[in-house]
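Researcher: Next sequence.
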Amino acid sequence: MFLLNLSDFFRTLGRFGTLLLGFTMVSISIFTGAIKYGITFDNILRNLPDALPWFLLLFTLLLAWEYELIGGLLMFLLGIFGFYYIQHLAHGTSFEIYLMYGVLFLSLMFILSWIAERMYALSYA
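Model: Next structure:
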């Protein structure tokens, strides 16, 4: 029973943490650039490419909501690629690097949830 509760905890933390991070960063990336030029529909559409990585994170969340292992692994790969890109190619700030640590942590929550659920199923098989 402990493993099932642990699996639910990991799953809930991964789902709602990713929702919070994803929607926050989508809104920040869209409206930060639009503020510079004025918040109009045209300027918001102009800043949509800045939000594409965060839309991709939300897409992997949809995948992880149904298939935890596949979505968690894809989210982990997205976090590794984002970490590499920010660290080496874009020379990002420490805030952006910490965001990628958050993505890696949340992806591990989905993977650990899947592992705990499988261990529970094996212990009562």
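Model: Residues 2-37 form the longest helix (36 residues). The chain has one domain: 2-123.
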